[in-house]
Specification:
Elements: E1 2-3, H1 5-30, H2 35-47, H3 50-75, H4 83-100, H5 106-135, H6 139-161, H7 185-190, H8 199-216, H9 218-228, H10 230-235, H11 240-267, H12 278-289, H13 297-310, H14 320-334, H15 336-340, E2 344-345, H16 346-350
Parallel strand pairs: 1-2
Helix pairs in contact: 1-14, 2-13, 3-8, 3-11, 3-12, 3-13, 4-5, 4-6, 4-11, 4-12, 5-6, 5-11, 8-9, 9-11, 12-13
């Protein structure tokens, strides 16, 4: 099959989605389930009510932001596995700020919590970036360990440091004030009382910012250059160490903002986590499905949100089946070499 290189970029993820759904259907048949009914229930649940459509857009907000964070690190040549911890930092610190200053006007409170989430996530991302740049440590190992440090560190904060006046139980805080919440009455009324919030608008704005940064600015060009060949970038006069740290700060900041949107937009409080945030891993998968492109991430996050909301309505079929389908999709994205064997570019065919 012949197609241009530009067409191939978006064809590979689409084929990966199709193959993932197909393998999922085969898996359902093997266990005695009807895949046609299953996918029908999934789509009907996801799009069968205004409320669930609102929930899809609610789920997209943090997914987009965390995926953008992963994409920036990937462009710089790093595999940022610390997204769950960075998102949790943004969530905990922004909610703490919101509970500490409940009477701020809503616009000012939103701006402040956005900044707190960015700063908290940026600091969590800076640590592995600095260690990689100046000590040559593996960012994969450091970010994995940082996830545990942040997880247990935030448990300590919530259980032993947060003042009693903002605690509902020993494990969870009270809800933030209406001024601090990212949910709004008009969005809720528009979507039949779903939890859709302004996080989706923040995320879409971030998509434009990251796209512009990576495609239209010198910094974006330098980050990409370091990712392709750090030695050549150094030879060209770029500071590879500086760019490593900057890219990890940006990555962590976006993940932290994703955690902020999840905390103040979906839950409205913070509670002690027992494991890494699943939203962090899902954001990583979204970025991989979008081939780390800023403009592809909203579409990939839409698919993941549809699967997440729709799987709750599959009657008689374990929701874990859709988790396996998602895993199949990412498998085929990661093994895109197999797909590319069947879709040659025109240039490759012409060279034979």
């Amino acid at each position: 099959m012949l197609m241009s290189k530009k067409t191939q970029k978006w064809a590979v993820p689409l084929i990966a989605v199709f193959l993932g759904m197909l393998l999922g259907a085969i898996l359902m048949l093997c266990f005695g389930y009807n895949p046609l009914w299953a996918y029908n229930d999934l789509l009907y649940t996801a799009f069968g009510s205004v409320k669930n459509i609102g929930e899809i857009f609610r789920a997209m907000g943090p997914l987009i932001l965390i995926a953008l964070g992963f994409s920036v690190a990937s462009k710089a040549g790093f595999f940022n596995v610390g997204l769950p911890g960075q998102a949790l930092m943004g969530w905990v610190m922004s909610v703490w700020f919101a509970l500490s200053f409940p009477d701020l006007p809503k616009p000012f409170s939103v701006i402040c919590t956005v900044l707190v989430g960015l700063i908290a996530g940026g600091i969590a991302g800076a640590i592995p970036g600095i260690l990689r740049a100046f000590l040559g440590t593996s960012e994969v190992i450091v970010t994995i360990m940082m996830n545990y440090i942040i997880l247990y560190g935030t448990q300590y904060l919530i259980q032993d440091v947060f003042p009693d006046k903002i605690m509902r139980t020993t494990e969870a805080t009270i809800k933030v004030s209406e001024n601090a919440s990212y949910q709004t009455e008009w969005l809720s009324a528009l979507t039949d009382n779903s939890r859709i919030n302004i996080g989706i608008f923040i995320a879409l704005f971030a998509v434009f910012i990251v796209w512009f940064l990576m495609r239209k600015t010198t910094l974006g060009y330098e980050i990409t250059s370091v990712g392709i060949n750090p030695h050549a970038a150094e030879y060209a006069g770029m500071s590879a160490k500086h760019l490593i740290v900057v890219s990890m700060i940006i990555s962590g900041a976006l993940a932290g903002l994703g955690g902020t949107v999840e905390g103040l937009g979906t839950f409205g409080n913070v509670y002690s986590q027992t494991s890494s945030l699943s939203i962090g891993w899902d954001g990583m998968a979204v970025s991989l499905l979008a081939v780390n492109t800023a403009l592809g991430i909203p579409f990939a996050s839409f698919l993941y949100a549809v699967l997440s909301i729709g799987k709750t309505g599959m009657i008689g079929i374990p929701s874990e089946v859709i988790d396996v389908v998602s895993a199949f999709i990412i498998f085929f994205v990661g093994a895109d070499y197999l797909i590319r064997q069947f879709i040659k570019t025109k240039k490759e065919e012409g060279g034979k």
